[in-house]
Amino acid sequence: MESAGKGPAVTRRNFIASSGAIALVISSGALISATEAWGVKVEALKPETMHTLIQMARDIYPHDRLADRFYALAVKGYDAQAGKDAALRKLIENGVTTLDGLAKAAHGAPYVGVGWEADRVALLRQIEHGAFFQKIRGGLVTGLYNNKEVWPIFGYEGESASKGGYLERGFNDIDWL
Amino acid sequence: MGAPYKLDDSSVVVVIGSGAGGGTLGSQLARKGIDTVILEAGGRHEIDDFVNDEWTMFSKISWLDPRTTSGSWRIAKDFSGLPAWIVKAVGGSTVHWAGASLRFQAHEFKARTTYGDIPGANLLDWPLTLEELEPYYAKAESNMGVTRTNGIPGLPGNNNFKVMKAGADKLGYKTCHTGRMAINSKPRDGRPSCRQIGFCFQGCVIGAKWSTLYSDIPKGEDTGKLEVRPNSQVLKIEHDAKGKVTGVVYADKNGKLQRQKARIVCVAGNSIESPRLLLNSHSNMFPDGLANSSGQVGKNYMRHMTGSVYAVFDKPVHMYRGTTMAGIITDESRNDPKRGFVGGYEMETLSLGLPFMAAFLDPGAWGRSFTSALDMYENMAGMWLVGEDMPQESNAITLHPTKKDKYGMPIPNVHFDDHPNDVAMRNHAYKQGAAVYDAVGAVRTFPTPPYPSTHNLGTNRMSEKPRDGVVNKWGQTHDIANLFVSDGSQFTTGGAENPTLTIVALAIRQSDYIAEQMKKGAI
After folding, report:
1. What ipTM was assigned to the predicted interfaces of this complex?
2. pLDDT band at A28, cuts 50/70/90?
3. List of chain A residues whose C-beta atoms are within 8 Å of the C-beta of residue B364
4. Closest Cα in chain B, distance from residue A141 (Å)
5. Pairing with B51, which of A105, A110, B134, B188 sits 20 to 30 Å away (CA)?
6. Is residue B49 over pLDDT 60?
7. Residue A111, domain extent
8. Does a structural domain hold residue A167?
9. Cβ partners under 8 Å of residue A49, min gap 6
C-alpha cells in the first residue's frame, strides 16, 4: 500500500456513485482510490481483477465504518502470491471472469459496475460454494479482522499486558446493568 | 543417578506428554525421587514467548499436525483439518486453558447406573467414586491454587461476568459466581495475582494462571530427578517377549529416531494422540495395538457437548477485558431428565478477541447478517456452554489408512456424530443462555456452534472389567502392568465439568500408585 500522493489526476467519469461501490481509477499498473489517499500496485494480476477483489471483500464482509483501504489491504497480497503461484493466478483470474460473466448476463455490466450491493451479493451467492469464493472469503477472516488498525473501529483494544492489564483500566466498569 | 538420563537407562519412568496429566505426573514422580523422563512433542516456550495476540499464539503453540475428520459434527465441515484446539508445547493445554477447576459430581462417576440404558450410548460407571477421589481433588486444588478452595478468595468479576450475573439473578438461577479458577486472586506459590489482562487462551504473560509449564515442571526439575525433552515425538512404544513395555522410539528435535529405554511408560498425549500412539505400536504379539484386547482403544471419543451464546446489547460491555472465563452458572449441571436429556451442563462466561470472534462466531458465514453482529463487538457479552456428552463406540480415533505425518506415522482421523442426547442438551443450553441475556435486555443473541474440541476425552477409558475398557482405576492398562495412561483419555464418561482438575487429581493419585507398585517390585 502506498499513498497516492500527487498521483495521476482522477477522472470523475470512472466513479460509480452507488451503494457500497468502491471508486477506483486504474493508472499505470496501479489502482488509485478516488476518495481516499491510497493506491495499490498491481503486477501479476490485471488491475481490473484487483478492483473486483476489493469490491468482493467489501461485499463479503460489509462494514460501513471501514474505509476502502482496509479491504484493499486485506486482498492486495494476492497479487504477489499470484506472481509466484500460477495456479492461484488462474483461480483468481478465472473466478473474476466467471463473476463478471454472471454480472453482465444479469445487469449488462461487470461486477464492479453493478450498482446495488444486494445485486452484487446475489451474484456472489451463485459462486459461494466454489473454490475461488472460498479462497477469497477464507483469506479475509484474517486479512481483514487481524489488522490491528481496524480493531479500535470495532472497540477492541488488543493487547493489554504492556499497560498492566485492565485491573485498573475498566475490567469491571459496566454501569448500565 | 539424576537428570539428564541416558537413552539406554532402563530404570527410568518415561512420561509421554507434559500437560495437565503428564506434567503433573512427571513432577510428582520426580518429587518422590523416581527417575523420570518427559518426552514432549512440542517445543518449550517460556512465558517470555507469550504475547497478547490471538493468531500469533495460535500459530506458535497449537497442535497443527495434519489430522482428518469424519462424521456429522459441524467441525468436520467448518474445521476439517483441525478437530481439536489443543497445545503442542511443554505444558500442553495447561498453557492455553481458561483455568476452570471443577470437581465432578458424585453421580457422574456412576453414569450407567444413574442415566440407565441410553440407546446408542456406550455408558459405563467409573471403577472409582467421588469419595475415593476427594482427597486427590483436595491435593490438586491446593497444588493449582484454585479460588474458593483452601481459603483462596474468588476473583473479582469483570464486565462479562456482571452481565451474566445480572441475567442469572433475574432468571432465578441460584449459583452464579466468579468460579473456581486456577488463577491467583492473591500472590501464591511464587506466582503473582491476576491483573485482568485477558488473553488467558494465549498463555498467561504473568503466570497468574496455573500451568505445568511454570508450576509443576520446574519443581520436578529442581529435584534433579526429572528431565524434560521437548521436540521429541514418540512414534512407537516397544515391548519384550513377555509383553512388558521396554521403551519408546521417538523423533528428536532434528527428526532423528531415538530409542529411550524405560521401566514404565505413561501415555499422556491427549485423547487423540494417546490412542494414536497405542494403535501405532501394534506388533505380532499385539496386532490391534498395545493395551487393546478390549478393542476399546480410540473408541468412545468424547468432546463435551459445547456451544456458545453471544449477545449484543445497546450499550458497551467490553467483554474481553479481564479473565477469559470469568464466571459460572452451575444450576443446569444437575441430572434432571425432565429437561429432555440426561446429564447436565455448565454455563461459563467466555470472550474472544475480534480476530477469533470473526473466525468462530459463525464459521463460513458472510454478508450483513454476520457483519452487523461484529459491528456490535464492543457491546457483546458471551458464554460457553459445556456439558456431558454420551460416549459412543463409533465416535473414534483411528489411524488414517494412507496419510502419514513427516515421520511416516499414520495421521489420526477423528470421527464424531452428536448423540441425540447431546443435541437435546445443546438446544436447551442455547435457549437458557439466550434467556440469561434476554433478561437483561439483549438486542440479539447468537447460538454459536462448537469450536474445535478443547476437551478431548475417553479414548482409553477406565473400566472395572478388562473387556469394557483400556485401563483400571489407577490408569494402569489392563493388558500390560508397566504401561499407564495418564491423561483425559482415561475418563470413563465426561461429566459436565471442565476436565483439567480431574486429570490433575488422577495424575497425583496415579503417582502414588506407581511409587507404591515400584517399591513392591510389582512393576
Report:
1. 0.94
2. confident
3. 137
4. 6
5. B188
6. yes
7. 43-156
8. no
9. A42, A92, A93, A96
Beta-carbon separation of A141 and B55 below 8 A: no
Q: Mean per-residue pLDDT for A16-20?
A: 53
Is A152 a domain residue?
yes
A95 vs A108: CA distance, rounded Å: 18
- pLDDT of res. A19: 62
- Give backbone dihedrals phi and psi of A138, rounded to 5 degrees, phi first: -60, -40
DSSP string across B319-382: TTSS-SS--EE-GGGS--GGGSSSS-EEEEE----HHHHHHHSSTT--SHHHHHHHTTGGGEEE
Beta strands in B53-165 (DSSP E): 68-70
Do B245 and B238 contact (CB within 8 A), yes or no?
A: yes
Q: Enumerate the residues of chain B whose CB falls inside 8 A of the CB of residue A157.
A: 318, 320-321
Residue A2 lies in a domain: no
Residue A143 has pLDDT above 60, yes or no: yes
Judge: B159–A141 Cβ closer than 8 Å, yes or no: no
Q: Measured between alpha carbons, how far is A56 from A20 in angstroms, rounded to an integer?
A: 11
State the Cα–Cα distance between residues A109 and A115, nearest whole angstrom. Answer: 9
Q: Do A154 and B374 touch (CB under 8 A)?
A: yes
Residue keyed to cell 451464546: B309
Q: Is residue A170 part of a domain?
A: no
Digit-coded pLDDT (tens) for B103-148:
999 999 999 999 999 999 999 999 999 999 999 999 999 999 999 9
Q: Which of A60, A156, A157 sits opposite B366 (nearest CB)?
A: A60
CA distance to partner chain B, nearest, from residue A88 (Å): 21
- Domain count across chain A: 1
